[in-house]
Amino acid sequence: MATQQDAGGVPFSIAHDMRQFRLLELPAELLALLDAPDPPLLSMKSQAPSSAKPAYVVLCTPTSTFQLRQVQTSNTVLITQPTLEAHDSDIPVPTTRAMATCTTTLELHPADGTPIESLTELLPLYHIVDDEVDASGNGKSKDGVFRDIPFSDGQCNRVWQDMMAFEFAGSCWRPSANTLIQVWRSINQAAVADGIKLDKQFLTEDLMRAVDEDAHPADLVLAILMRLNTETESNNGPWSCLDCTKTVSFVGTALLDAKIGLSDYATTDFIESWKDCLPEVWRNETNLKAIDAAYSLPSPSTIRSKKSLDTAKADAAPKAGSQRKWHEKFGRARKK
Questions:
Q1: Whether residues 249 and 280 fall in one domain
Q2: Range of 106's domain?
Q3: Number of helices (H) and strands (E), helices first, in the chain?
Q4: Composition bias, kind Basic residues: at what positions (predicted)?
Q5: What pairing do the DSSP bridges indicate for beta strands 302-305 and 295-299?
Q6: Strand 125-129 to strand 171-175: parallel, antiparallel, or no bridges (unpaired)?
Q7: pLDDT classification of 316: cutoffs 50, 70, 90
Q8: Rounded to two decimals, what is the model's pTM?
Q9: Rounded Cα–Cα distance for residues 321 and 312 (Å)
């Protein structure tokens, strides 16, 4: 019903059926993105429903994540829209109509943390033991996994690349340390056999073709190469060139992690194994400073990984269900 107005006033009315609205208060950085000539797509995400953890919705840009916080307001906030109204046989006149009230506002705050925990939980371990694969898949694509993680796709993808995660046989995986070492040895041996210098620019496809004889998943081989590429090489281009510092640290860390739960390395034996896993040109780069955050010295003559034994046991624990079926499937794939 329209309120009484003085001459020259703006007619105002309140709708009989008020609608429910939430106002979203945008931070300056997000407002700037939306005002840009080519604004990004925004999305709402949350983790998959679970009785163990509550699921909270977040707002994501392609690269950032914002938590939503509901704030009560004591002010009367009305959402209005212009309309034409007429009473009885009067001529319709322009009117401002209140169509909704807002008692709360949604504020956006940058989200803390990273997707590491979520990806570790959602990606099963791809573990190679005695040239056989011991694994049980999740039946999800990369996009399917990202949909259940309350972080932006850009943040998820950075952790995915750091983990050297990959897609294979209708599932997504994260490789165990033992798998990483075995696949890396295949990469290094294939490079030596084909005369490919890993410290120089080479065609990624040439090395992939050489490694293919060992029947490792192609996406896993590519994930390792992308992880170890120099900063100047594009991960989307046809060329690769491995970074010395990244590669030396990666190999040393993976060797130590693969021994978690087993007897400690003698430090001298570890150094020799580390050298043997590297291209000849980088053998002399095996200095413990290169893996400073990854090892501990339980005695003057032994070395071990700093990672928790409990984490290793959880990773290595077989999952119930289709373990044998996947084991046989991967076994056949590797023998083709």
A1: yes
A2: 12-110
A3: 11, 15
A4: 322-336
A5: antiparallel
A6: parallel
A7: low
A8: 0.82
A9: 21
